Amino acid sequence: MSYQYAKPLAILIEELSKLPGIGPKTAQRLALYILNTSREEAGILAQSIINAKEQIRRCQICYNLTEQETCDICRDNTRQRDTICVVETARDLMAVEKTGGYKGLYHVLQGAISPLDGVEPDHLTIEQLISRLKKENIKEVILATNPNIEGEVTASYIARLLKPLNIKITRIAYGIPIGGDLEYADEVTLAQALLGRQIFKNER
Question: What's the CATH code, domain 7-55?
Fold first, then answer.
């Protein structure tokens, strides 16, 4: 007979296991950790989840996560305001921001086109992106969707829509990561690395 958790603990483990990347063992470890914290600490954790759900919204301009009508990036007048980087999710936006190398604006699509998953273009914020480009003085749109089938389809779809607007459209380069070995790269990654090759500058 397998071990049976007390019902409240079993429910907590089940709910935690629904989180992305959290398997049953990790969920169990997290649940037991929570039980070992003080009632006050557990309350702070629970309240922080509730606060985030109640207070976080989508930016009215770029659809990034924010607690105000517009996010910090859209309100920042020091940003390069003639360039928009189009990403699939707020998580992707955060990844680009962590590099510290991009100082322009963003537009978060809220996903990628995937008919098999029931995600069509009108489920994303593509129409809102077009509207922004017609109103704002944007010179370049960087398509930074993920380098997979859905991301490529989404980038191609958006590029076709933007072509009549006479705006510079670029796609992020991707390929072999620094420190990676060619023999471990898959065919698609290696092919894209070759297509995105640049002139080698030997400064010696």
Answer: 1.10.8.420
